[in-house]
């Protein structure tokens, strides 16, 4: 398992990259500016299976 940080990971290519690595079983930290898109990404990640879509911290 690897760990990735994806800036702009709630839309477009960043989102696709984040989901790709989650499907591969990697840890992914996503940085984005829109809390709603962040929640959408977490919901999609949670549908991928156990361990995905966990939220470790909220927007600051």
UniProtKB/TrEMBL annotation:
Protein name per Swiss-Prot or TrEMBL: SDR family NAD(P)-dependent oxidoreductase
Gene3D superfamilies: NAD(P)-binding Rossmann-like Domain (3.40.50.720)
Highest taxon, organism lineage: Bacteria
SUPFAM superfamilies according to UniProt: NAD(P)-binding Rossmann-fold domains (SSF51735)
